[in-house]
Amino acid sequence: MKMNFKVGFINKISLLLTMVMVTVSNAQDVQETIGGDRTKYNFNLDWKFIKENPAKAESEKFNDKSWTTVSCPHTFNDIDTFDDYSAGGHDGESKQWRGTVWYRKYFKLPKEANGKKIYIEFESVRQIADVYINGKYLGKNQTGFIPFGFDLTPYLKFNAENVIAVKVNNDRGDDFRNNFPLVWNHEHWHPTHGGIYRNVYLHIMNPLHITLPLYDNLKTVGTYVYAQNIGKTHADVTVQSEVFNEYNTPKNIVVENLIIDANGQIAQKDSKNYTIDANKKAVFQSQLGVKNPKLWYTRNPYLYKVITVIKENNKIIDSYQTPLGIRTFEFNKDSGFYINGENTKLHGWGQKPTNSWAGLGAALPDWLRDFTYNLMDEAGGNFIRWGHCAGSPAEIAMGDKYGFVTLMPGVSGESEDEGETWDIRIAAFRDMIVYYRNHPSIFIWEGGNWAESAPHYEQILDIINTYDPNGKRLMGNRRADNAACSEKYISIEIGTEGWEGEYPDLPIIESEYCRDESPRRVWDEYSRDDNFFNHPNFKRNTYKLSSEDFAVKQAEHWWNKMGKKPYHSGGANWIFSDGPHGGRCPTEVTRASGEVDGVRLPKEAFYALKSMWRPEPQVHIVGHWNYDADTTKPVYVISNCSAVKLFVNNELIGVDSIPDNGYVYKFDKVKWKSGQVKAEAFIKGELKTSQVKKTTGEPVAIKLTPIVGPKGWLADGSDVALVDVEVVDKDGNRCPLDKGRIDFIFSGAGIWRGGYNSGKEKSTNNLYLDSECGINRVAIRSLLKPGKVIVTAKREGLKMATIEIQSKKIDFKDGLSRMMPQLYNVKAKEEPLPAHSPKIPIGEVGVSNKSQLFEKFSYTGDSPAVLRTNMFWGKKAYTDLPYNYTVIPKYLNEAEYIRMPNSDNRYWARDLLQFIAGADMILYVGHDDRVPLPKFLKDDYKDTGDDFKLGEVTMSVYMREVKAGESVVMSGNSDGEVPENARMYVVLAKKN
Length: 992
Fold this sequence. Notes:
Residues 232-327 form the Glycoside hydrolase family 2 immunoglobulin-like beta-sandwich domain. This protein is mainly beta. Helices cover 9% and strands 36% of the residues.
């Protein structure tokens, strides 16, 4: 949903309710005052911090005067990240400081807090948080990603200073698969950026109040809002509010619910009388009918608000606001995804919930998270899968406002877990659902990043049925095909890498496709070297892709795995922004699989996807137009139109109306000439859009451009100002091949955090940086004291540039502020339907036994066998056992294979398995040597001398050569006695 991005505009909605002015505003505005005794304070400012573990730091009287002053969001890993080359092999950045640190904060409560309830809310802490108030231990949270809270009331001083202390630990074990108990706390999944890296709030409420949706520690569930019986003229909205009466006497109350539309008008209201017993919680339900409801679409995410009010003796005691999006949806196994009856292909990204940023780590102000989300929206995204662990509260709300269908997990690594690990995971899953269940953007709960056992699935579904029984959301586990029982419990297949569906009766959504990597700084093989192709680590790279290659691959992956398949709901490109997690290319300090880099500068892949996914006519010429005089190269144009013309200096080079992979128009052997290249895009012969790229001149100057939040750069101790530094020619055009060092002079009221160079170690937090493709971006953190910073950028031979940025004072008193974290205020503009969709090939089906090597395949056993491609570690061996291939002979990698039913291990038939060889190939059979060797293996195959394990069973590898067109028949596993736990043989093949 493309938004109008108007910085600094704050929308306020007012309504008159029983003579009390109720102000409803966006989260970035001053704390909403809906009425009653509830006040929410920003608790981020002015913490004391030490990167040590001193004894008795929880004590009220502990001397922390020598500690550093910081504000949240805060991480103690912002200076040791994005600075080491990827180790390769999918290992993340491990050289980060890990251990135990302390935070302390002093605060006084306002006079009106006397007699009230006081709760603290942490949006999450990485990784383990032990919380104390005035020396009293409150409890622990070790999820790292799920909000949690505590009741501070019994331990507070209402007329004196209080101190809260938080001990934080981000340590982890070396082996990410056995990092007990917190298997997800590892840089393989997420960089281990420790700290109070998200927001902290203080809630002051009447003892009679609507509870917070913070189950951990508080055991409260807040409100639950859902819509049913949705039609064009009417929708029923149910509001369930958990109310807590912490008085010692019963209370007669009125519960009012108001539905407020996007214009601030009351769409419906309801009022009921109740009695609630002393010191009891009760859930009160109300149903409201909305006439002619405005529906939430991905292309028009219309949002209502529900305001729940408690009154006693006609006085407002408490009130609470809940988002509401009214929508129907269906994931259909044959025809894909529907929103309000409209067929929509879902396209977007996976994103790490750490959202790491070079120089800043995982501690980002909310507006920078919004900055990232707006880029995803600009590129035409409408789907997001949070990678393995839950996104932040602000980001899930961004899914609501930008129109992103969200696949939401709790916390998970990549394993089925037991014991303490599972206990933490399942509790986190419950807490996540309680906190986020009202967000209309969430359509799928992800039970885990790996298949579960039946008892675990039953626990997952029990939590959903208990806390979100009417959300109608689907549940799935990525890699659910690793457990035979999965199909009984999951309601959607969460696929990986766009393979054919494993489950013929389930819809499919892709969780991780196009995991290739390429840094932004690499244009193509025709451009000057960029510390990539000539990098000393280049031979160790898994991916050797230029930016051009990477951009063109976006269409190949999207179209062939999801785009051309009517039954496929769509999926998540892995991943949106580069980060220091699990990279496979040791030429980089990141996993460079993002469409934007580690400071959110777009790659060519970003514009490629934008040209595919935006509904308006789009066209993008991949690359630049500054080549050497003798250059002849292919020119790739990405467009969602039906034909493209290419011009060089207004001379027609060619016309292409038959795109590759749906969107790629290739013009081969184009001779470069100084001037311009232009692409014109057509639909049904009509010119719809065009793009021109020009040859830029020599670098003459540096240009600096500041980027701040919608309210400016706030002096809150954690806000960030960005500065784009460009090298430009005499006409102000960016020089796309510039890559030299730029030095900075910095002074004033801020903390320099710099940026990074993707192909150089130790490039962060320095007062120098190389431009990459003519641009780079640096960051500056604010202080608690407002002031001005001056930034000068210079390079010998270029005209230097200087800018000033002024931070703004934040009102806070006694450690509390009413100013909420700032976000962009966006005004939704309904998108059109796609201007053109590529022609879908005939014959695409959801699940089939197709193979290049195993043609005319048949299997006559008691259970079905399944054909699969691309063998590697972790692939499932059988259809009915959980064992996966782990260490296998290297020559078997990327083989096609047959997933056999182990239940046929005692079944024998002469023609159990038959196929026609689709090519000359080598056929391999893995055989359990405890089972007598079948005759076909004795007669036609030879023992390679190699073996591998499936579970605890050793399988010997046999092989034979097969010619294309040859018929191969295999009999059953055995017709004699076999051990109780015997394994069925397995079959693999590779082209010869």
